[in-house]
Amino acid sequence: MSTHKSEVHRWVQCAALVTALALNACNTPDFDVVISGGTIYDGSGGEAYVADIGITDGVIRDIGDLETSTASDTIDASGLMVTPGFIDAHSHAVLDEEWGNDGKHFLTQGITTVVLGLDGFGPYEVAERLESWEGNGIGVNALTFVGHNAIRTEVMGLAPRAPSPDELEEMKALVRKGMTEGAFGLSTGLFYTPGTFSETDEVIALAKVAAEWDKAIYDTHDRDLGATYEGVGYDASVSEGIRIGEESGLRVIFSHFNPQGATNYGRADVGARMIEEARSR
Fold first, then answer.
1. Binning pLDDT at 50, 70 and 90, where does residue 140 land?
2. CB burial class (10 A; 0-12, 13-18, 19+) of residue 174?
3. Is 97 in the same domain as 171?
4. In degrees to the nearest 10, what's the CA dihedral of 209, 212, 214, 218?
5. Average pLDDT, the chain
6. What pLDDT is attached to residue 23?
7. Do 249 and 170 belong to one domain?
8. Domain check: are 131 and 258 in the same one?
9. Can you give the pTM of this predicted structure?
């Protein structure tokens, strides 16, 4: 073949390749999925608005008017609400068992993140728990707290007394271990055994360890909702939670806010005012 014909042949091949690539580019959709026409509540606290959402590779790439865009799949959300996944902030999901690790019963409610290890029963072997979730696969996002009750039981069993100095140091070391391995904060169940045997100073000492991590949280099932332990009471229980947060430096979440017993009916506002006053300090 002459040099001239060879050059022409190569140019024809290149032109065909460019044409094929251009046609392929034209046939590639803009998004994998477009959710169209839904009323979006984006979690910012702002007003809801109607818009389309473009998703590619499992990531939201655009929000707006995508009417002229193409997608491999389109979901018509007209008349429906579209939100980020909900967070179950006090969950007892069982992600360590085969029957529960897919989290389908949460996902079908729109819950995509669960908060575990609450009421003081979170694991102190946090790395082991996270590795198990990673290895087995779970259907939801999950985070865990390190639990005061679990730590106290490990160190002291169910002893109804204050810890010795050595025991307190051992508990502090386990809190530090849990936080180092990825815990979100410290949880207590002062309503439950053995947490009910602990004094406030014990909890503050452990909470101070967790406070070494930025943005860590103290989540508590407070000591008495109002109708259980004589000599404690609802007001004192809320005050204790506030004190632990203030003296340790941790932000506080009260897991339950339901004052119980006939003498406390209608008194939820008392606890709310106590918390608001503490937040303003």
1. very high
2. buried
3. yes
4. 20
5. 90
6. 47
7. yes
8. yes
9. 0.81
